[in-house]
Amino acid sequence: MLKKIYILLFLLSATIINAQHYPTYSQYIINGLSINPAYAGRNNVLDVTAAHRRQWVGFNGAPVTTSFNMNTPLKIKSISVGLSVIDDKIGPFNNQIINGIYAYRIKFRQFKLSFGIQNGVVISQVNYDWLLRNQQQDVLINGQRIVNIGFLSGAGAYLHNKNLFVGLSAPYLVNTLNANFLKENPILLTGGYFIGMDRDHGIKPSLLIRYIHNSPVSGDINLNYYYKSQFGIGVSYRTNNSLIALTEFGINNQLRICYSYDCELNRLKKYQYGSHEILLRYYFGYSVNAKNPRSMFL
């Protein structure tokens, strides 16, 4: 137990200073609005996505992230808006991020190019009562709950057609919060291409590259297989970190359920049971040609 506490304290310090500066997702391609505001309006209908991630199950104080995203095009088809709400917990830290999103899309040859911005607030709370202390009656921290509120702003670009997508984003470009949370701004590059093998089968290789100042460049390399528009299964490798299994189920043309499991490849695997992430997405409308459903997977 004592070893777990020491490891947890180390992870908390590494997380806040150099590593996980923002919530981590394994299903970022499906939940694109969580990392890039330019994704808003991508599916040409109002769509709502709810996701829940439990990281390092069995490890006391491990990250737990819940998010709710919605976006829709407006009557002016080139304009889309959205809302993102994120609750992220790790140890004694609890952070809520609320962003309003605006995206403008133009046609560029056979592609659509979208530029997006997001503005909002972050509420960061620290509960010292959660920590184990040598002196349980320390009057300096007993009952202490520190709350900080800051302004956040981010931007992104997203280029796509029915088979290909490329995105570049800095979701926390501006942060006025006077705390370590989100102190460094990550830059994210995503890309993928759907390869249709025939009417019913297809594969989609994709990747995500993360750059954070003073931290090593990291990335996810993914390969997904799809059958018709109803089922997908894939595998992802997160550099020097974990191997991820992903599944997608289309209940109908509007409702999708997705699940992923992360298996750690580093020393942490001895102290936890992997990470679970589940996602629900609902389309309020259906504009995808049934003869060409591949666009639902981009």
What is the average of the pLDDT values?
84
The global form is globular
Give the termini separation.
44 Å
Structural class: mainly beta
Number of strands: 15
* CATH superfamily descriptor: monomeric porin ompg
Contiguous low-pLDDT stretches (5 residues minimum) are 1-20, 288-295
Q: Tell me the fraction of residues in β-strands, as a range.
A: over 45%
User: What is the count of DSSP helices, taking H or I runs of 4+ residues?
Assistant: 1
Radius of gyration over all CA atoms, rounded: 20 Å
Strand order of the largest sheet: 1-2-3-4-5-6-7-8-10-11-12-13-14-15
Secondary-structure element order, N to C: HEEEEEEEEEEEEEEE
- The helical percent reads under 10%
Under CATH, the topology can be stated as Porin
- The CATH architecture designation is Beta Barrel
Broad CATH class: Mainly Beta
Number of domains: 1
Largest pleated sheet: 14 strands, antiparallel, barrel
